[in-house]
Amino acid sequence: MSNAVGAELVLGTGALDLWVADVQDIFPAIMDVARCFKTTVVTTNDAARLPGAEHYAYDHHHSNIEDTEKLARKIVTRAIESFANRRDVPVFIPPYEVTADVGFNAENIAEEFNGFDAFVDALKSGQIKGMVNIVGCNNPRVIYERAVVDIADELIKNNILLFTNGCASFPLLKLGYCSKDGASKAGKSLQEFLCGKLPPVWHVGECVDNTRVSTVLAGIAQAAGKDIKDMPYAFTSPEWSNEKGLDAALAFRMFGIDSYHCVEPPVQGSTNVENFLKHDTKDMLSSVITVNTDPKALAKQIIAGIEEKRRKLGWD
After folding, report:
1. For this UniProt entry, which residues form the secretion signal (predicted)?
2. pLDDT by residue (tens digit) across 8-34?
């Protein structure tokens, strides 16, 4: 079980016959590790290629969308061929298992709780202090996965329910935050809401599944009769490292939800862009970016932001 920064570790198990990289996982060491284990590497994006990899171009603007099945079959065929050529490669998969509840979405959450009113009541009473989407890629500029765990720890202790997906979810999955036993790490009132049946961190899917969280948050806001920007919500991608992470943060901030990070956004090339993202969106979107390289201090800022929204709602 690994995310983007741990990609070479997955290859190092020797278990993979073929590795497909699209716009991510284009890391310099991939080819070196793949050669050690005779793993075939295929890239599909013309702007993200690896020296020595086989390249089957797939246009994201859909100019060759009719070739989708043909390219997929070609990749599967190469995997079968690679399997036959790798019978002498030793495989070691660490004997480590985790238990996790995954697959949360607006539909099954609403079904489980008979709508969103239960969340409104819990938020108003303070049983749930707020809700935070903790996501984003990993970043080699900071200690691997540490920021994600430190922030999650602090938030659930303060009775904040978390959603997660993609790379940031992996440390939370591995360390038990996404299992019902993980509720023991949470504050007392959040534990009571979870009733011993649900985890304190709800896993919604891959890194492109942020929309599932926004749908849930919008549903709860609607049930409360409030604008989503006024609700005690926050977005954090502690270790973000690429343009997709920036886009995800901006998407939530377009709802008026503040975003929090432990790494500066890669926009220092333009003072205007940096000021726009960090400050100027307050009037336009009712939200801003906050960056603090100390994860625990950032968590306290998230909590303070949520408490401020609760005060404005009169939910204290």
Report:
1. none
2. 899 999 999 999 988 776 788 899 999
3-state secondary structure of 73: helix
Give the DSSP letter of residue 48: B
Q: Are 198 and 103 in contact (CB under 8 A)?
A: no
Q: Where are the beta strands (DSSP E) in 118-232?
A: 130-134, 160-165, 201-205
Cβ-based neighbours of 292, under 8 Å, separated by 6 or more: 260, 261, 262, 298, 301
Question: Across the strands, what pairs with 276?
Answer: none
What is the DSSP-derived secondary structure letter of residue 45? Answer: B
Structural tokens at position 246: 């920036």
Residue 274 has pLDDT above 70, yes or no: yes
Helix orientation angle between 117-125 and 106-113, rounded to the nearest 10 degrees: 80
Going by C-alpha positions, the residue among 301, 303, 279 that lies closest to residue 289 is 279
d(CA 127, CA 159): 7
- Please say whether the dihedral angle defined by the alpha carbons of residues 242, 104, 119 and 126, taken in this order, is positive or negative: negative
Q: Which domains does the chain have, with CATH numbers?
A: 4-86 (3.40.50.2030), 106-313 (3.40.50.2030)
Q: Is 122 exposed, middle or buried (0-12, 13-18, 19+ CB in 10 A)?
A: buried
C-alpha atoms less than 13 angstroms from C-alpha of 88 in its C-beta half-sphere? 3
Tokens 């935050």 sit on residue: 177
Provide Rg for the chain, Cα atoms. Answer: 21
Residue 77 half-sphere exposure toward CB, CA atoms < 13 A: 7
Cα–Cα distance measured from residue 215 to residue 217, given in angstroms and rounded to the nearest whole number: 6
* Contact by Cβ (8 Å): 167, 207: yes
Q: What is the mean pLDDT of the chain?
A: 93
Q: Are the CB atoms for 71 and 45 separated by under 8 Å?
A: no
> pTM to 2 decimals?
0.91
